[in-house]
# Entry
Amino acid sequence: MSNKTPTIGAYLDDEERELIEAIEGGMFDEGKSLLTPERKIELQKMAHATMNDEREKITLRISRRDLMRIKSKAMQEGMPYQTLINSILHKAVS
# Structure
């Protein structure tokens, strides 16, 4: 058995590092957002297109780490994490 100590943040990409720095730096405490108006409109259009389809409830098992990263990303984008997941899936199959 290995006695290696996990390194927190070892596999973060640039965008994730930027989000962590913003959170730790108090950016969200000041009411600022990393979401540009253009990106917000783009995400709203994707969400709207996805929401207009007939919906079916599913169960999906994903790792806790992936879910944590998705929730973090959704918070950064200013949307619910389930909407982000739906948007990612829609984009992948379109």
